[in-house]
Design a protein that fits this description.
By secondary structure, the protein is an alpha/beta fold. It has 18 helices and 11 strands. The strands form 3 sheets. It has a 5-stranded mixed β-sheet with strand order 5-6-9-10-11. Strands 1-2-3-4 form a 4-stranded parallel β-sheet.
């Protein structure tokens, strides 16, 4: 690291330390003044765009960011300090500035977060999961993961996301990594079955590990794929975390949704249901309009008291070419969206795993294979049946907090009028 970079980081650290002490005296009054204090310690031009973004977020006492920071002062002081240091300073200020610098030097993109699989091992054998196909012997040892994180931090990356396998098979190593890198934040997707009181206590102790549980609809649907009793094990883990994080949930006024029952409905049936009940004409037969999503959520809340609903079998015309068609009706795909209070928060489904089937789908759509050779080669020599999904964490956060716009759940939102930071 260059001497000037060390000086900038030292100045920033000093400014933050002083700023946090300043806030402790009277958070409600001093939050809007925080960046004025930082400006006195940090010269003009240093982390300027990042500082301006935070300044704009906290100067308005009616803003959600001001309210969120104020509520953080009801938390454990250690948790509060870890949040400010890892998320605001390291990942968002120092990290994003370093990422921009590396990207400019090397003419490349630097990710804000790094995703890695600590292990292929899993304590479950879910139908169709790649972990069950590949076995339990593929692991990144502790030294390798540590090296990845150290190299990532040199690029300005302080956010790490674990997938798997089941990452918490390696729970001791995960906690060790939190200890080795207290300046980073770690998010881990998990089936939730290996969480016990001891592990929850360790999570609270290190303060920089965040679990995200995975469930698949109702107890019957979940256990049908994952094994009998798995649903209740996840519910128990959530209960442990809810007890440990009850104070934080109360501070944020979050009432956890009921995930004990999640109905599922076909895409075409869902459109017909809301059209009939709410006297709404079907305008687009191939996709759901935002108003329709909201009405589907309303319908299943009124009829089934359900906070979530799976909408399945989207038309093939509106899904990517790699989506698996329904063998019983190829106009539709084996896909789904998960709606939470009428908003899509997850999209997923089964993907085509057969090389020739992929080529035919590409040809049927009038597409070219040029530029996709590397992707297609992955399937040429064999690929097990598999699926995938993507979770919109900002959308989920928005719905949990009852916000009206997803920008309120993003630290640095981007839109038509705002590109950076």
């Amino acid at each position: 690291m260059k001497l000037m970079d060390k000086a900038k980081q030292a100045a920033l650290a000093a400014a933050v330390k002083t700023g946090l002490g300043y806030l402790e005296k009277d958070p409600e009054v001093n939050i809007p003044k925080l960046m004025e204090l930082v400006d006195k310690f940090v010269p003009d031009g240093w982390y300027e765009s990042q500082r301006n973004a935070i300044r704009n977020a906290i100067q308005n006492k009616d803003s959600n960011w001001y309210k969120l920071i104020l509520r953080i002062y009801e938390l454990d002081p250690g948790v509060r300090e870890a949040f400010f240091t890892n998320f605001i300073i390291n990942a968002s200020l120092k990290g994003s500035a370093r990422q921009e610098e590396v990207a400019a030097q090397n003419n490349c993109n630097v990710p804000w977060a790094i995703l890695l699989d600590p292990t292929s091992a899993c304590n479950l054998h879910c139908t169709g999961c790649w972990a069950a196909e590949y076995g339990h012997k593929l692991n990144l040892d502790l030294e390798t993961i540590d090296s990845i994180i150290r190299q990532g931090k040199e690029l300005g990356v302080y956010m790490y996301i674990y997938t798997g396998g089941e990452p918490t098979v390696r729970k001791k190593d995960l906690i060790k990594l939190c200890e080795m890198h207290p300046d980073c934040e770690f998010l881990s997707f998990s089936n939730g079955t290996l969480f016990d009181e001891e592990f929850c206590d360790e999570i609270l102790r290190v303060k920089n590990f965040v679990p995200a549980f995975s469930l698949e609809g109702s107890e019957e649907a979940n256990d049908g794929r994952r094994g009998e009793g798995i649903y209740q094990k996840v519910m128990h883990a959530m209960k442990l975390l809810k007890e440990d994080y009850a104070k934080e949930l109360e501070i944020l006024k979050v009432e956890l949704p009921d995930a004990s029952r999640i109905p599922a409905v076909r895409f075409d049936v869902a459109k017909e249901l809301v059209a009939k009940k709410y006297n709404r004409q079907i305008r687009n037969p191939f996709d759901l309009e935002p108003e329709e999503e909201a009405l589907i959520g309303q319908y299943f809340k009124e009829e089934y008291n359900a906070d979530f609903v799976f909408v399945t079998h989207y038309p093939s015309k509106k899904r990517p070419f790699y989506a698996m068609d329904d063998p019983e009706d190829t106009r539709f795909t084996l896909s789904f969206d998960l709606l939470f209070h009428g908003l899509e928060i997850t999209t997923g489904g089964q993907r085509i795993h057969d090389y020739n089937a992929l080529l035919k789908k590409i040809e049927d759509r009038g597409m070219e294979t040029e530029g996709m050779e590397q992707y297609l080669d992955t399937f040429k020599y064999g690929m097990p049946p598999h699926g995938g999904l993507g979770i919109g964490l900002e959308r989920l956060t928005m719905q949990l907090l009852g916000e009206e716009n997803v920008r309120e759940a993003c630290l640095f939102p981007r839109d038509l009028n705002r590109l950076e930071p």
